[in-house]
UniProtKB/TrEMBL annotation:
Keyword entries, A-Z: Cell membrane, Membrane, Transmembrane, Transmembrane helix
Bilayer-spanning residue ranges: 77-99, 111-131, 143-176, 196-216, 293-314, 326-347, 359-388
Keyword Mitochondrion set for record: no
Protein name: Chromate transporter
Similarity comment: Belongs to the chromate ion transporter (CHR) (TC 2.A.51) family.
Membrane-protein topology: Multi-pass membrane protein
Any one GO molecular-function label of the UniProt entry: chromate transmembrane transporter activity
Main location: membrane
Organism for this UniProt entry: Paraliobacillus ryukyuensis
Any single GO CC term annotated in Swiss-Prot or TrEMBL for this entry: plasma membrane
Length: 390
């Protein structure tokens, strides 16, 4: 009975956050701190900071992984699962409904949708600037980002992102060991190492097996699951970086058009919760509710397996300079990947006139300099898109 009460408490708070957490990953971490640390005192400041450090270190949606970790601290593995469901379900439902309305009424060519596409330009540009400052602090990091950008633009294949990330990791292993500050903090988490090993084994097993199954069994749902799983497993840097991975997976093969892709990305800025739920929109465009739910499960599954798999080993892992150096280099490469995606398809297909460029500049200033919230930028973008042709 106590366990059920704890799980209900977790899902109730997580759902409240799922309906109200606008503003992206950084804002989410602030909401979590206010709710779980300051108000309900489920964990102390040091434990929360350490959990955030772990989730920034791992690939995947950092804020969602922090949310899962807090659920695990409070209620074990089931706590992590219900915390994820509560935080994620509101935006998943909103984006699936939006995708079905889009399919039903074919509204992707309206002015409001064009406005949402311009919002996508603004949001990604802001993300690039912020990430560039943080992840490319030195000239060597900037060179890695530039090489990644060149490779992604000139060699656009299914494996480009994987090769860029692996190459960056090897460079990091060799040259970035001294860039890491050690820490001896520990997390008050109790997961067995057996659970961790099983989770990590399953993570890598699926990462390598799914592409093979995709080739052997020509089924759309297997191809979808593989694309979303690999995107969720290879994202370093947060929700905005999933954009280029998903775009490469679904637009060139014809799963959806660039117009549909950018329309959904603009809409994803308007809903609370994690940006990874953009996958629910893509899945729903392809296969309605079942596709949206399958896409959500597939893209978040790596995050679950990694958080379960690394928590018991976090102390040893975070103090390993060699391993952490690889992630420093990978994070720099992510900046280049994001710039490439910003140019193609976002900029090329959206900023096609002086009017659209001017409107994008205004929205960017309102977001960055006037500090308007992201949801208000989305509303202004939709309204401006309607008025732009006039």
């Amino acid at each position: 009975m106590t366990q059920l009460k704890t799980l209900w408490e977790i899902v109730k708070l997580a759902t409240q956050l799922g309906f109200t957490s606008f503003g992206g990953p950084i804002a989410h971490l602030g909401f979590f701190h206010e709710t779980y640390v300051k108000r309900h005192k489920w964990l102390n400041e040091k434990s929360y900071a350490d959990l955030v450090a772990l989730c920034q270190f791992l690939p995947g949606p950092a804020s969602s992984q922090v949310n899962m970790g807090i659920g695990i601290i409070r209620g074990g593995m089931l706590g992590g699962i219900v915390s994820f469901i509560g935080f994620t379900l509101p935006s998943v439902c909103a984006l699936i409904i939006f995708a079905n309305v889009l399919n039903l009424f074919a509204i992707e060519n309206t002015g409001a949708i064009q406005g949402l596409k311009i919002v996508a330009v603004v949001v990604v540009a802001h993300a690039i600037i912020n990430m560039g400052k943080k992840l490319t602090p030195s000239l060597s990091h900037k060179v890695i980002a530039l090489c990644a950008l060149i490779m992604m633009l000139l060699w656009q294949t299914t494996f480009s992102q994987i090769i860029v990330i692996i190459t960056a990791a090897v460079i990091g292993l060799m040259f970035f060991k001294k860039d890491i500050d050690e820490s001896d903090a520990d997390l008050p988490l109790k997961l067995s190492k057996k659970t961790a090993i099983i989770s990590l084994t399953l993570f890598f097993f699926l990462l390598f097996l799914l592409p093979l199954l995709r080739e052997w069994i020509q089924k759309d749902w297997i191809a979808m699951f593989d694309s979303f799983y690999r995107s969720g497993a290879l994202v370093f840097g947060g929700g905005h970086v999933v954009l280029p991975l998903l775009e490469r997976e679904f637009v060139p093969p014809g799963f959806l058009t660039e117009q549909q892709f950018l329309t959904g990305y603009g809409a994803a800025q308007a809903v609370p919760g994690p940006l990874f739920t953009f996958a629910a929109y893509i899945g729903a465009v392809k296969a309605s509710w079942p596709g949206g739910l399958l896409a959500t499960f597939a893209i978040f599954l790596p995050a679950f397996l990694l958080i379960f798999g690394t928590l018991p080993f976090w102390q040893q892992l975070r103090n390993n300079k060699t391993i952490r150096g690889a992630f420093v280099s990978v994070n720099a490469a992510v900046v280049g990947i994001l710039i490439a995606a910003f140019y193609q398809p976002i900029w090329v297909s959206t900023i096609n006139s002086s009017n659209s460029f001017t409107f994008a500049a205004v929205l960017f200033s309102l977001l960055v300099h006037f500090k308007l919230p992201a949801w208000l930028i989305v509303v202004l973008g939709a309204i401006g898109g309607i008025l732009l042709p006039l």
